[in-house]
């Protein structure tokens, strides 16, 4: 239950505060970003509900609540496996979508350098530690962070691919660990 409440709080913090609030409040934010945040909050609510079934079922020794706990854990385990498979299969699509989002913001900035997109593109450059999408000459008019290293700064599209490649393995490892915990909780509930 506490982990579920923490996930809900983290999802709401990402939506309304923190580093990602500027991305979430921007009109150019993709619908995938909002869906991801709402799925995160929904997953936290599901975790809290499942934790309630398990806690109350164990405390009251209720077979009905423990059965509901087991059924929920079985569904969650199947969803984790499915999400993991789709994450590794759809890696190329995720990279292309993230690059397209950056290219759209980049193009909007080039059309109107003084607009609200100026702050958004700066946050992308700061988060990815890069600047621009093509060559060094195009970086001169862009809002780039001062402390980035110039060889790395030449192409944000490459940096987006590197970040997704590097972090997808971490997501897979965490997913396997959570799936293992889910299986052990299922066995204990039985």
UniProtKB/TrEMBL annotation:
Gene3D superfamilies documented for this protein: Tetraspanin
Keyword Transmembrane helix in record: yes
Subcellular location: Membrane
The keyword NADP is assigned to this record: no
Record's signal peptide: 1-21
Transmembrane residue ranges: 37-59, 66-89
Keywords assigned: Membrane, Signal, Transmembrane, Transmembrane helix
GO cellular component annotations of the record: plasma membrane
Family: Belongs to the tetraspanin (TM4SF) family.
Name the record gives this protein: Tetraspanin
């Amino acid at each position: 239950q506490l982990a579920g409440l923490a996930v809900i709080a983290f999802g709401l913090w990402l939506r309304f505060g923190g580093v990602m609030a500027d991305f979430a409040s921007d009109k150019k934010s993709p619908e995938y970003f909002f869906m991801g945040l709402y799925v995160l909050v929904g997953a936290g609510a599901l975790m809290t509900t499942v934790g309630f079934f398990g806690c109350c079922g164990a405390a009251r020794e209720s077979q009905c609540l423990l059965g509901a706990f087991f059924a929920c854990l079985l569904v969650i385990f199947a969803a984790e496996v499915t999400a993991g498979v789709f994450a590794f299969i759809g890696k190329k699509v995720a990279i292309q979508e993230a690059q397209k989002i950056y290219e759209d913001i980049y193009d909007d900035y080039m059309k109107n350098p003084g607009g609200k997109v100026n702050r958004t593109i700066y946050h992308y450059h700061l988060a990815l530690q890069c600047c621009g999408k093509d060559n060094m000459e195009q970086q001169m008019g862009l809002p780039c962070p001062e402390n980035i290293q110039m060889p790395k700064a030449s192409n944000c599209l490459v940096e987006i691919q590197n970040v997704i490649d590097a972090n997808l393995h971490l997501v897979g490892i965490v997913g396997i660990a959570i799936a293992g915990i889910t299986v052990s909780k299922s066995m204990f509930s039985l």
